[in-house]
């Protein structure tokens, strides 16, 4: 949403108008304004703290407001915190306005559902499990409104295809929001109890501990990403002819993993595997990586050591998991003629089979200094021809389906010399048929 299309701005404007309607006071409903101000201040403070530590939004306070207050007053609780919270990317004002409208609508709808189902009485005189019914319905409404609005902005501002914009949003957000809803209900019940608001605030203590742990996780994850970026940048500097190749192989590996039905954790691991598959090139002499002419058998043997070099570099990085096996075995072939160990069939780890296909596909569809890129259709045809001998047919099929859904934009990665000048060198490297997507790619 750095450059916001006009249709997305219209969408945001519509959400703002709807939020203003949601904030309109209802004469028949009176709210204790001290409670509104206290909850709004608490939410604003927690939002500033949480956002500064990149740990998300403090939904329990918002949901407690929805359980305690009439709909317009509850919706007002979200406004100051959303408008004041830090924003990481431009346009700052539009993002804050969008966030404020989104939360105002979500909290207003949540409070309305809770109010209509008699939730206010259930909070004043809690009768469990009956009190969970209106609260559960209200949490579902909150999650649904956020999902609808998030999907809309993805489709309009980020140009995500409509069939994918809402996919999985509701399912992914329901569980954490349900936990926040339970904390919000506990706050509301304690607020209305003889112990009063002070007791309600104690509910936030375990949430603060959870936020701290989540912040630690994010810092560790950021360190992991920095480690990977540093390794990839080092490879790109050493082997400039394939700059960007690692990132694209990571992207293709992730697409294949999703199409194979892997869970999110494995998808992320396969992305790491694709990004790091050539890190062992750091151990190969630069003159061989950048050699214009054909490689001698001895030079080829040196280059073929790069999977083992790479495995040595990453084997101590525990968070990479099965990605380490992919780094070691991504040049193995299904028929056993690959390297470094000549593994065949199912003895080759699945992660390595995925990265092998992604690596070959990007190598064929990227222009290098010594040959032109192939069209995507021709590259896919070559992969299908080599499936069963060099590549896992199931993985090749998954790539075909993924590209059918999402497409692919091949990138030019060559630096410097024209393609024609080194065309003969490609032939000298044995880049014919299946070799061009296996042994011939450095």
From TrEMBL:
Residues 242-364 form the HD domain. This is HD-GYP domain-containing protein. Pfam families: HD_5. PANTHER family: CYCLIC DI-GMP PHOSPHODIESTERASE TM_0186-RELATED, LIPOPROTEIN. Residues 220-415 form the HD-GYP domain. SUPFAM superfamilies: HD-domain/PDEase-like (SSF109604). CDD domains: HDc (cd00077). The chain crosses the membrane at residues 6-26, 33-50, 62-85, 135-157, 169-191, 197-215. Keywords: Membrane, Transmembrane, Transmembrane helix. It comes from the Bacteria. NCBIfam families: HDIG. The keyword Zinc-finger does not apply. The keyword Transcription does not apply.
């Amino acid at each position: 949403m750095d450059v916001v299309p006009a249709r997305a701005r219209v969408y945001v404007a519509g959400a703002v108008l709807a939020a203003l309607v949601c904030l309109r006071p209802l004469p028949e409903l009176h709210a204790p304004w001290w409670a509104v101000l206290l909850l709004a201040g608490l939410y604003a403070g927690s939002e500033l703290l949480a956002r500064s530590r990149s740990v998300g939004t403090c939904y329990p306070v918002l949901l407690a407001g929805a359980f305690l207050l009439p709909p317009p007053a509850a919706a007002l609780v979200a406004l100051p915190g959303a408008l004041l919270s830090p924003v990481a990317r431009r346009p700052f004002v539009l993002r804050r306005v969008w966030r404020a409208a989104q939360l105002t609508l979500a909290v207003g709808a949540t409070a309305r559902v809770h109010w209509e189902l008699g939730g206010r009485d259930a909070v004043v005189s809690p009768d469990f499990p009956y009190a969970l019914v209106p609260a559960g319905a209200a949490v579902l409404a909150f999650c649904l409104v956020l999902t609808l609005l998030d999907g809309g902005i993805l489709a309009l501002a980020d140009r995500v295809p409509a069939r994918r914009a809402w996919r999985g949003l509701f399912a992914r957000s329901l569980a954490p929001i349900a936990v926040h809803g339970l904390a919000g209900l506990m706050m509301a019940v304690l607020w209305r109890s003889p112990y009063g608001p002070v007791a309600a605030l104690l509910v936030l203590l375990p949430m603060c501990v959870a936020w701290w742990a989540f912040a630690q996780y994010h810092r560790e994850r950021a360190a992991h990403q920095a480690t990977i970026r540093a390794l990839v940048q080092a490879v790109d500097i050493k082997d400039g002819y394939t700059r960007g190749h690692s990132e694209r192989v990571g992207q293709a590996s992730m697409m294949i993993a999703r199409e194979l039905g892997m869970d999110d954790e494995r998808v992320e691991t396969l992305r790491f595997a694709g990004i790091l598959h050539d890190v062992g090139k750091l151990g190969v002499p630069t003159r061989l990586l950048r050699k214009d002419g054909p490689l001698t058998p001895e030079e080829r043997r040196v280059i073929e050591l790069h999977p083992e070099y790479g495995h040595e570099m990453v084997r101590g990085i525990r968070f990479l998991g099965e990605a380490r096996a992919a780094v070691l075995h991504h040049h193995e072939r299904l028929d056993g003629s690959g390297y470094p160990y000549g593994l065949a069939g199912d003895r080759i780890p699945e992660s390595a089979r995925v990265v092998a296909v992604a690596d070959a596909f990007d190598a064929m569809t990227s222009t290098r200094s010594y040959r032109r890129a192939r069209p995507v259709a021709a590259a896919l045809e070559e992969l299908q021809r080599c499936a069963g001998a060099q590549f896992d047919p199931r993985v090749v099929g998954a790539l075909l389906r993924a590209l059918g859904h999402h497409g692919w934009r091949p990138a030019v990665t060559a630096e410097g010399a024209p393609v024609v000048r080194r065309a003969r060198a490609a032939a000298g490297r044995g880049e014919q048929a299946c070799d061009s997507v296996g042994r011939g790619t450095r």
